[in-house]
Write a structure and sequence with these properties.
The complex is a heterodimer of chains A (about 110) and B (about 160). Chain A has about 110 residues and is α+β, with helices and mostly antiparallel strands. Chain A is built from seven helices and three strands; from the N terminus they run ααβααββααα. Chain A has a three-stranded antiparallel β-sheet with strand order 1-3-2. The longest helix of chain A is centred in the last third of the chain and has 15 residues. The radius of gyration of chain A is 16 Å and the shape is elongated. In chain B, strand 3 and strand 4 form a beta hairpin. Chain B is about 25% helix and about 35% strand. Chain B is of the alpha+beta class and about 160 residues long. Chain B has a seven-stranded antiparallel β-sheet with strand order 1-7-6-5-4-3-2. Classes of the chains: A alpha+beta (about 110), B alpha+beta (about 160). At the A-B interface, helix 1, helix 5, helix 6 and helix 7 of A face strand 1, helix 1, strand 7 and helix 3 of B.
């Protein structure tokens, strides 16, 4: 479901920073990368995750790809967090995130290696 | 009476199915926000699930009170747990909650289904709406109680 993807997308500080920048107005990848301490390739990757969560949308203008913030994903999340069981499952997931399983942690370590 | 649709929510966690099940059930006291979501409120000190069919789901308060929230109807580790749900209410007004744990791409999808609203009869729609709005009936009750106390004190 959408809010789940949204939670994952927002769990990353760089993605939150990108979203904050886009709230100020539409931007191209390069413009975003200039304002962040990460590479253009990393920004592209983060934008893809944000797009899957419907937090941003993309329009092509010639060779330039312009990204803009979309409120739809955030509204889904808000609806989820406003519900009683949504809050409970969110509290549960926060606890679960603090103790990732060994299998998952290994996979994560592998991904983070350059 | 017309059937009232269940409340359904789900979330994925980065744990194996067995760990996810165990955290939800045995570990419920470690994550349940009991200060805000309990009968005793800030006096709640523990929430626990007895892991067997017929076992209880209950809350303990610092005053030593035990509030039963429900009874375990289904104990099928690590895939499913089901229980009646009537915190702060008489057992006659119990609804039902079922939680399933399924592997999903290296993670575990936890899905919760809360149904049986018809049992609440004329109050069903209102209480269901409370759950959907996040206040929950418990919190709504706590809030009303606190408000009443405040009123009494200022009188």
């Amino acid at each position: 479901m959408t809010y789940d993807t949204v939670l994952v997308a927002l769990a990353d500080p760089t993605r939150r920073a990108i979203l904050e920048l886009l709230k100020g107005g539409p931007s191209a990848v390069g413009e975003l990368a200039d304002q962040l301490p990460v590479s253009r390739a990393a920004v592209s990757q983060h934008l893809r995750v944000l797009k899957d969560a419907q937090l941003v949308s993309e329009t092509a203008m010639g060779t330039r790809h312009i990204y803009r913030a979309e409120p739809k994903g955030l509204m889904e999340l808000r609806r989820y967090l406003e519900s009683f069981w949504g809050q409970m499952l969110f509290a549960y997931a926060k606890k679960a995130d603090k103790r990732p399983s060994r299998k998952f942690k290994k996979a994560q370590d592998r991904r983070q290696k350059p | 009476m017309k059937e009232i649709p269940p409340v359904e929510v789900s979330i994925s966690v980065s744990l194996g199915v067995a760990e996810a099940f165990s955290l939800f059930t045995d570990g419920i006291g470690t994550w349940w926000p009991m200060q805000t979501h309990s009968v005793g409120g800030d006096r709640a000190v523990d929430v626990a699930i007895e892991g067997r069919e017929g076992g209880e789901l209950y809350e303990l308060t610092s005053a030593g009170e035990k509030h039963i929230w429900g009874t375990i109807l289904l104990w099928d580790p690590p895939n499913r747990v089901g229980f009646t749900w009537h915190p702060g209410r008489d057992v006659d007004y119990a609804t039902e909650v079922e939680v399933t744990f399924r592997p999903a791409g290296g993670m575990t999808e936890v899905s919760l289904r809360h149904r049986g609203w018809e049992k609440l009869r004329e109050k069903a729609e209102e209480i269901r709406a409370n759950y959907q709005s996040g206040w929950g009936d418990l919190v709504g009750r706590r809030y009303r109680e606190a408000a009443e106390r405040e009123r009494a004190e200022s009188a």
